[in-house]
């Protein structure tokens, strides 16, 4: 699909194509999951599913979740209520194709007619693809792109166990092809789960580093959806609510993982951000983060967290009024304080850096190598150009400059030295765009 969009973009002009896509996206009917929220929501969902009378549910999850005993209350509820189900616990990070194929085989062999995803983003995305592929008798590769399945997937229900991806509310599934090392995106409005249970009890054992990274992924979804060109009044409300909730509750969820109220608010904020970006899309931060994930395996949320402040700083004046609103919603100005837009915008960018410091996110990326930066920047700009309604188009030179600032300190010094040696006298050391 990316290639198709690139080709079309060349033929008719990218700005016009993106405007047209924005018109469609703003009006596209996108279903929303019915939400069950609060401690015990996952078992209440299980009780409801038993009453729905499905022939057999495929419960899609991962082995760690099963080992930790997180799934047990739900399966006990299903069993007690007489619901037939099959557990498929083979999902691994980034949902690789062979695992999806095994899931499709299990779904068909067990005679299932509905799916329950119980896990993080990879689990929910895998369940979406298993359902769509099984319904259409197609290999997942044949479903890559938009609306490639003729038949609707079977009913899908979701129980997220992290607060970040928002996949319980989105139209897309991202899986990976271990042969090509490419991420494959499958999008269809019928992939949105029918119901989702946001149960904070399932999140109290999450390691602090995962709480931090997934929380910053949710913040990036909200911020990019709010700053991009495809926002609507509804996505703006969802994004602003998510930002306010994340600023209020992420530090506490990080400091005290057992705080159920903070966990619940973070789960809800993640879903709100998902509702915002599934229509308004993401932007340059995600475009760069995807390249870092592909090349180094950098966790998605961590890459977003490290990139968010530098990208916002680079956007500068173009997004100042919106950054000022984000600052107000994040509680960075007292109601009686007279603060100008520029100062509010500055406070918001600074607050992202401060949030990172508070929750243990590094300022630089240890795995980033200077020699990879040109290719990373080129791929990131191509992805953003083809897919995202960014508020400011980023040049590869600007992206390279930004990535240079994220090199480990020693590597940055060496790269700067090389650049000085290579440039004629009087030339700028680092391009800014
Ligand atoms: Fe994300």
* Whole-number total of structural domains: 2
In this entry the ligands are: fe (ii) ion
Helix count from the secondary structure assignment: 17
Rg of Cα set: 22 Å
Number-wise, the strands total: 9
Helical amount among residues, as a percent range? 55-70%
Q: Beta-strand level of the residues, as a percent range?
A: 5-15%
Mean pLDDT: 91
What is CATH's topology name of the largest domain?
A: Dehydroquinate synthase-like, alpha domain
Order of helices and strands: HHEHEHHEHEHEEEEEHHHHHHHHHH
Can you walk me through this structure?
The protein has two domains: 172 residues, Rossmann fold (3-Layer(aba) Sandwich), CATH 3.40.50.1970; 216 residues, Dehydroquinate synthase-like, alpha domain (Up-down Bundle). It is α/β, with parallel strands linked by helices and 433 residues long. The two termini are 29 Å apart. The N terminus and C terminus are likely disordered. Helix content is 55%, strand content 9%. A hairpin with a 4-residue loop joins β7 and β8. The protein is globular and about 70 Å long. Bound molecules: fe (ii) ion. The site of fe (ii) ion (FE2) has 5 residues, from α8 and α12.
């Amino acid at each position: 699909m990316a290639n198709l969009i690139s080709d079309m973009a060349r033929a008719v002009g990218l700005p016009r194509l993106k405007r047209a896509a924005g018109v469609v996206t703003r009006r596209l009917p996108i279903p929303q999951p019915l939400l069950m929220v609060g401690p015990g929501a996952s078992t209440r969902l299980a009780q409801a599913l038993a009453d729905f009378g499905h022939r057999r549910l495929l419960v899609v999850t991962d082995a760690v979740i099963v080992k930790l005993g997180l799934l047990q209350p739900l399966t006990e509820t299903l069993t007690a209520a007489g619901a037939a189900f099959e557990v498929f616990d083979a999902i691994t990070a980034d949902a690789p194709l062979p695992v999806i194929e095994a899931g499709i085989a299990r779904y068909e062999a067990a005679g299932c007619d509905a799916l329950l995803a119980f896990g993080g983003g990879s689990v929910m995305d895998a369940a979406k693809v298993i359902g769509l592929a099984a319904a259409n008798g197609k290999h997942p590769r044949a479903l890559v792109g938009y609306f490639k399945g003729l038949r609707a997937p079977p009913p899908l229900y979701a129980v997220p166990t992290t607060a970040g991806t928002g996949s319980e509310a989105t139209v897309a599934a991202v899986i990976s092809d271990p042969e090509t090392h490419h991420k494959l995106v499958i999008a269809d409005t019928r992939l949105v789960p029918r119901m989702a249970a946001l149960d904070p009890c399932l999140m109290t054992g999450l390691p602090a580093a995962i709480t931090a990274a997934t929380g910053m992924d949710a913040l990036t979804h909200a911020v990019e959806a709010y700053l991009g060109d495809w926002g609507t009044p509804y996505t703006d409300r969802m994004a602003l609510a998510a930002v306010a909730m994340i600023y209020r509750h992420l530090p506490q969820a990080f400091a005290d993982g057992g705080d159920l109220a903070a966990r619940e608010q973070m789960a809800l904020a993640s879903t709100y951000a998902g509702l915002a970006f599934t229509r308004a899309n993401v932007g340059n931060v995600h475009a760069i983060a995807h390249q870092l994930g592909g090349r180094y395996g950098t966790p998605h949320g961590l890459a977003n967290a490290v990139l968010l402040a530098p990208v916002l700083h680079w956007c500068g004046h173009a997004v100042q009024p919106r950054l000022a609103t984000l600052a107000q919603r994040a509680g960075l100005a007292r109601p009686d304080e007279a603060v100008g837009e520029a100062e509010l915008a500055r406070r918001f960018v600074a607050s992202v850096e401060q949030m990172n410091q508070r929750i243990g996110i590094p300022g630089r990326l240890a795995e980033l190598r200077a020699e990879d930066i040109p290719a990373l920047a080129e791929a990131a700009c191509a992805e953003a150009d083809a897919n995202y309604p960014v508020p400011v188009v980023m040049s590869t030179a600007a992206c390279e400059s930004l990535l240079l600032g994220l090199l480990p300190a020693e590597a940055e010094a060496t790269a700067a030295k090389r650049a000085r040696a290579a440039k004629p006298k009087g030339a700028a050391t680092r391009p800014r765009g």
